[in-house]
Amino acid sequence: MINKELTEPRSIVIIGGSNNVQKPGGKIIRNLLSGNFPGNLYVVNPKETEVQGVPCFHSIEELPDVDLAILAIPAPVCNKAVEQLASGKNTRAFIIISAGFSEETPEGARYEKQILDTVNKYGASLIGPNCIGLMNLYHRSVFTLPIPELSPQGVDMVSSSGATAVYIMESAVGKGLRFNSVWSVGNAPQIGVEDVLEYLDRTFDPEHSPRIKMLYIENIKDPDRLLLHASSLIRKGCKIAAIKSGSSESGSRAASSHTGAMASSDLAVEALFRKAGIVRCFSREDLVTVACVFTLKEVTGRNFAIVTHAGGPAVMLTDALSKGGLQVPEIKGERTVELKKKLYPGASVTNPIDILATGTPEHLEAAIDFCERECPEIDAIAVIFGSPGLVKMYDAYEVLHRKMEECTKPIFPILPSVVTAGKEVSFFLKKGHVNFSDEVELATAVSRVCNASKPSNEGIELYGVDVPHIRKIIDGIDENGYLSHDYIQELLWSAGIPVVPEFVSGQREEVLAEAKKMGFPIVAKVVGPIHKTDVGGVVLNIRSEHHLEIEFDRMIKLPEVTGIMIQPMLAGKELFVGAKYEDRFGHVILCGLGGIFVEILRDVASGLAPLSTGEALSMIRSLRAYKMFRGVRGEAPIDEVQFAEIIVRLSTLLRFATEIKEMDINPLLATEKGIIAVDARIRIEK
Amino acid sequence: MINKELTEPRSIVIIGGSNNVQKPGGKIIRNLLSGNFPGNLYVVNPKETEVQGVPCFHSIEELPDVDLAILAIPAPVCNKAVEQLASGKNTRAFIIISAGFSEETPEGARYEKQILDTVNKYGASLIGPNCIGLMNLYHRSVFTLPIPELSPQGVDMVSSSGATAVYIMESAVGKGLRFNSVWSVGNAPQIGVEDVLEYLDRTFDPEHSPRIKMLYIENIKDPDRLLLHASSLIRKGCKIAAIKSGSSESGSRAASSHTGAMASSDLAVEALFRKAGIVRCFSREDLVTVACVFTLKEVTGRNFAIVTHAGGPAVMLTDALSKGGLQVPEIKGERTVELKKKLYPGASVTNPIDILATGTPEHLEAAIDFCERECPEIDAIAVIFGSPGLVKMYDAYEVLHRKMEECTKPIFPILPSVVTAGKEVSFFLKKGHVNFSDEVELATAVSRVCNASKPSNEGIELYGVDVPHIRKIIDGIDENGYLSHDYIQELLWSAGIPVVPEFVSGQREEVLAEAKKMGFPIVAKVVGPIHKTDVGGVVLNIRSEHHLEIEFDRMIKLPEVTGIMIQPMLAGKELFVGAKYEDRFGHVILCGLGGIFVEILRDVASGLAPLSTGEALSMIRSLRAYKMFRGVRGEAPIDEVQFAEIIVRLSTLLRFATEIKEMDINPLLATEKGIIAVDARIRIEK
């Protein structure tokens, strides 16, 4: 529903505009004026004839036609104003900054619903209520400060929380991050985070659209749409960083008391972001730092060179990059001799390259050129240059600026003297750069970016999954609840998931013959009684024909027994795969090593169905205990590709059987002959 | 060797002082002058008669007597100047800011050694070379900027790296952190980090000394002294935060190329900090934020209330506190009704307490008072208040200031609008406060502080450890290397560590009788041959007398066999305890669950010998797999107290047998009858 009247209005009216710049209705006019809004600006205020130099009307009736209306009036009178504007003044876009709606009271929720109905009736767009507004290159319809530097290559930010958007900008200004647009969606009855993302996706222009998006989300209302448009944008070359807050139990209570957001399981969010290729962040600083990393050339490998004039920060940076799985490899060989000649005695050239506190801009240039030209193993360069008070900072920052333009490798500027060399840092930022004032924050952000997943491909892997048969089974089930053994077996078979073979018969000879085929040891269970174990109806580890004969004869005589089931007795390493249907997200698939790894260490990876083999492998490889797959302490290795295949098949099964709300395969055993499901639990709800 | 001439000199001379404030020798004079140094100031420079208004002499000979000399002249000529000053001008303190010493070349190292000998000869003190200098309330003998606000209640900072000290101050200035003294120790041939800490400890005055210390360390030269004085200071009421950089393998290479620091194992550092009660930090931002937390009242529990006028940051703060093991409990009951009446409709009072963007200073006051007075379950209050542009910030910050003085509970101010409300935030900081501009950074720091250990008591737990016997065994061993089985058994027994019983005999009847006493199953091993397994000399799981008879008869006939050893065959959960002697640190004890937990998951805790039971328990409880001790999947629980006791006994053993460079007990089995060592490996080096 986002239209041109909202993004590029020819005219704007502020209903409740004020001369008092302490009030939102005054501040928003001040921001529009300071932003040189190029269209017509009007105010409606019964008490004034001019507000901050802008023509003011006493009522809506007196207004000419106007594209966009910003409402800064009490909640109860908003809907009437919207109706008047839409019907009488051809207004097709609304920004309501007022609070007092669904976030506060049931009565407020009714006002909000009325407004939604009105704007929808007229096909108009609505931002808010309960927001700071919308700001882009065209108009600054927000009532808050700061106004960051706006630029067509800047970041598009979308935020559920107005104040958070403001505080993110506070942090961004100091780091030099620029914005293309800022969307504060407030209660979002019409336009929410997903809608803005969809708009950015649909209007994406490979030549002119900016590439970086920052999201602050408290509630993912429509995960499918978020996934669709986020991954589509990323495939088009965009980069997205996002905070989804409310990840802890208390945090999710805090979020829900705040916006009425429904708590979505954090594993589901994790899975969604992984699938979309979104870089997940957990604080404002973190989000802004990741977005700053996005502004630089992409890091295509894992090897960093550090060029510094101070030892300490280089050591901390090296530690932090290593912790994030990145490397600061030693630079060796003949080539270092040449570099060493160009620097002061005592300079270190092995990486970190320490040009010393007295190192000159020329030394800085030589060191960067060395990394760029002589070190093919180096993928990225971090430069630490503060104010040692010993060289001309402007010259050094000019070199840095030039090298950042020239070099093919990304260069990360770490300029820590933000107070003492504040002017020089500003001079550097004004050339269009960002600054990372703390080297460890940079390392954390850059490793987050380097370790993020690519968006998954959209196809569903159907090979070997018998969808019509799965549907037939599911459609044939009448009752909700846990499925019986037979249904489970059939569903697993239909999905192509290997299940331990079994044979049921009431005939002793048939059972014996089959057992010989299966090979001992075997397990025997009675068929018929519900509580098999209670009646002595389960015998494990039967090792001979003779033993089976004895047990068969005993078991077949137990009450209610209609037959005896036999299975091979398997031994192997326990694996775990399970799934839960999360409201709005669909099935979240969890995998891990079984037993204590899941139950005690909570070492599980999550993914969103349907999964590709690549995604399943990346889930498996993200487990803390991944090394166990290689086989430890004399155990055989576990076939991760087969495990991935089972995860994929399970996810495909679930995609076509959304009635399954919960299931897990347990135990899933990695035996010598492969990975086999021994038992499973499936709960359906139609 | 720190003396009054260094800390409170009556007179200072700058050798190589300059009119050019781009040079260190010029900058340092500027800083001394702007700091209004109260004593006599002189310069020695052959080319000038006055430097920046300070009397200048052409040579050292012409100088009057002077307490402290700051050298800003080339490395090769420093020693001569030191000798002249010490012998001729009674100078007893030196700060050498020049570089070009041991950090650069072997020749520089010789200069450094000469200077050290000279100052030691005269009983003088020496800071540097290769440092930025020393700054305290009395004199600002540093050549760098920024100069932070200095205050007798400020932080004492000691740094191995001058530039890092500068960049830490850059970050501190913005957060409002004040300093009492800043020590940049440079190459530290005489005064290092440990010496400054010792000085601060010995001169500690409970009434007047400041309480907060920040350390940046690249090389712990004397871990014992660091431990002694850090824990002593903490016991006297101080708080210490420290970065030890070089924690990764590449980082430690980076550190060693920088200062020639020897890499100390990161586990040893971890253990040392834990034992001392030092809060470990990993970045400058982190260090400064923790120090800011230290300036506030102590948090005595784990329950936080959040008072905010913006939802988003409160949610992120709640998430981050939870992640750090702290809580934001729901506030319930009748009492909330009263608070709700005082706030605007729509305000939330359940914690986070959201007074809304329009919330007034009076609302802020009401909410803080409520947490202070009506909520005994609340231990600390975090207040988020930026610039919503809707209330008078000065008034709100005045309320916050007053409440921070009045309330008994610590209040953490989170003022995010550092750009827009820069003036108001400065006004608040000027009243002596700090500011946390990012709520998640605060949460990380405050949980680090709340989760830090207390300094351990100094005693050694000797009970049941037979030290004379241990010494007798160790003294009796002639060769270095791995000890034989008998020595190991005796050492473990002497330390009171339970060892699996064993019995050796060549007599069939004796072995059979003893086996019956031990109870089957048992293990039998040949005594004599070195490679027992290769000759079929080990049989596990012997379950009957009959079986043992057969095996005895077979094994006793094997070549070189002198007897048969039997042990009960134990079953239980594997534990791990081991130790390594780290140069300078002493024994680092490691513990964990055995098997994959140590080998694959690297889930080990470290402690420094000797350990108390409390420390050992805290190590065990810090394991990721600690839950396993409660008994899972039907396994019996593991007796953590007995495990702790074994760890303590091992640490006591090692304290009296420093010749042991490496040992581990493996397997250490938690059986039904208690925890028992089955085998161990001990390597000695005399």
TrEMBL record, chains A, B:
Keyword Chloroplast set for record: no
Keyword Nucleotide-binding: yes
Organism domain of life: Bacteria
Keyword tags: ATP-binding, Ligase, Nucleotide-binding
GO molecular function: ligase activity
ATP-grasp domain segment(s): 489-525
InterPro entries: ATP-grasp, ATP_grasp_subdomain_1, CoA-bd, Ligase_CoA_dom, NAD(P)-bd_dom_sf, Succ_CoA_lig_flav_dom, Succinyl-CoA_synth-like
Pfam families: ATP-grasp_5, CoA_binding_2, Ligase_CoA_2, Succ_CoA_lig
Protein name per its UniProtKB record: Acetate--CoA ligase family protein
Species of provenance: Coprobacter tertius
Organism placement in taxonomy: Bacteria, Pseudomonadati, Bacteroidota, Bacteroidia, Bacteroidales
